[in-house]
Write a structure and sequence with these properties.
The protein is of the alpha+beta class and 350 residues long. It has helices at residues 31-41, 138-149, 168-184, 187-191, 193-210, 216-219, 229-241, 248-255, 259-270, 274-294, 302-308, 314-325, 329-334, and strands at 13-15, 24-28, 46-49, 57-64, 68-73, 78-84, 88-96, 99-103, 106-107, 113-115, 120-125, 130-137.
Length: 350
């Protein structure tokens, strides 16, 4: 292995929304900057440059939300070693070049792969490699499993590590990933948060159905259950009264069940709580209003919109909004394409 080295930046770098490409976070030769950006969005890791060619890295955010999708290439042969993977599923879909992915000390037969939470991961990429990297938080996948099985799993689900495109259902799922990337780059994605959410669910549930895992037999053919009437009544009540100061008790009265029964029904059938569901309804409505203002079809400020939909604490509103949509309310209002950096960089090169 060659020595760890950092680029001088002579090739130039572009971060944030600058440069060619939607959601471009980085382009250039500054190894430290690229390492910091990747660490912040994925996990702390060691980055080792193995050849003498100038690094020409490219890191693009395609989508951040319930799941995240990026494009990443280093422009040089590198070793990337995060160690034990945090609470998310790391899925590599190569677009160009090749590489070797190692999980728990075993080199995988293909870099088209799924690495599970808790597994030890390392990667070696050629200078020509460009990957789509799909990140699915464990909580998101657990929620999809809970809808199918009626209970949350006690441990992370383990997928078979190699995605085989010769298998018809896997090939179809990979086409969904490509379609999602194209959709995320469209103007429609910015104006249809519900559409984005449905696409995210298609990716998560499609993976559960396409890729073998320890619960394949248990979830086979089991889509989301038909919602019971109490949950549907509560959901309709939220949609009709989201602008009012309603409580869980109000939702339970509308659903004609007890508060305890309503909470249990939301946990089992939607893998969430009544108040979290109501908050998501209000966030979708707030985003609709912000997009209308940005498009010239409305007036007001972020504060006006937040208060309209019951968010009295602007900081919490901004935090919840960014977690769901991958940008702040102010960025939506400005129709900005930049994405906020998540977390602190805790790794060093070398």
């Amino acid at each position: 292995m060659g020595a760890v080295r950092s680029g001088s930046g002579a090739a130039g770098s572009q971060s944030g929304s600058e440069g060619a490409g939607r959601g471009l976070l980085f382009r250039g030769g500054d190894v430290e900057e690229l390492h910091a950006l990747v660490s912040a969005r994925f996990a702390p890791h060691r980055l080792t440059v193995l050849d003498e060619h100038p690094v020409d890295g490219r890191f693009r955010c395609v989508h951040e939300g319930g799941v995240a999708l990026y494009e990443l290439g280093y422009g040089a042969e590198v070793d990337v070693t995060p160690g034990e993977l945090p609470e998310f599923y790391n899925i590599h879909v190569p677009l160009a070049g090749d590489g070797v992915v190692t999980a728990d000390g075993a080199a995988l037969a293909s870099s088209l792969s799924v690495v599970n939470p808790g597994q030890r991961l390392s990667m070696r990429w050629s200078g020509e490699t460009l990957n789509r990297v799909l990140i699915i938080p464990r909580a998101t996948l657990d929620g999809a499993l809970a809808v199918r099985l009626g209970e949350l799993p006690s441990a992370p689900l383990r997928f078979a590590p190699v995605l085989d495109p010769r298998v018809g259902v896997v090939w179809a799922w990979l086409r969904v990933v490509r379609a999602f990337a194209e959709f995320s780059d469209s103007e429609l994605a910015a104006r249809s948060p519900l559409g984005v959410g449905h696409f995210e669910q298609l990716l998560v549930n499609g993976l559960l159905d396409a890729q073998p895992h320890l619960l394949s037999d248990a979830v086979a053919g089991r889509g989301p259950a038909v919602l019971p009437s109490a949950v549907r009544r509560a959901a309709d009540f939220c949609a009709e009264h989201a602008h009012e100061p309603i409580s869980v008790a109000d939702m339970a009265v509308a659903a004609r069940v007890s508060v305890r029964s309503l909470r249990e029904a939301f946990r089992v059938h939607l893998a969430t709580t009544p108040l979290t569901y109501l908050r998501r309804v209000r966030l979708d409505l707030a985003r609709r209003d912000l997009l209308a203002i940005a498009d010239g079809h409305g007036v007001g400020t972020v504060t006006d919109v937040a208060l309209r939909w019951g968010f009295a604490h602007l900081g919490r509103f901004t935090g919840h909004y960014r977690q769901v949509y991958g940008e702040t309310p102010s960025q939506t209002l400005r129709q900005g394409s930049g994405y906020p950096q998540k977390g602190a960089v805790s790794a060093v090169i070398g």
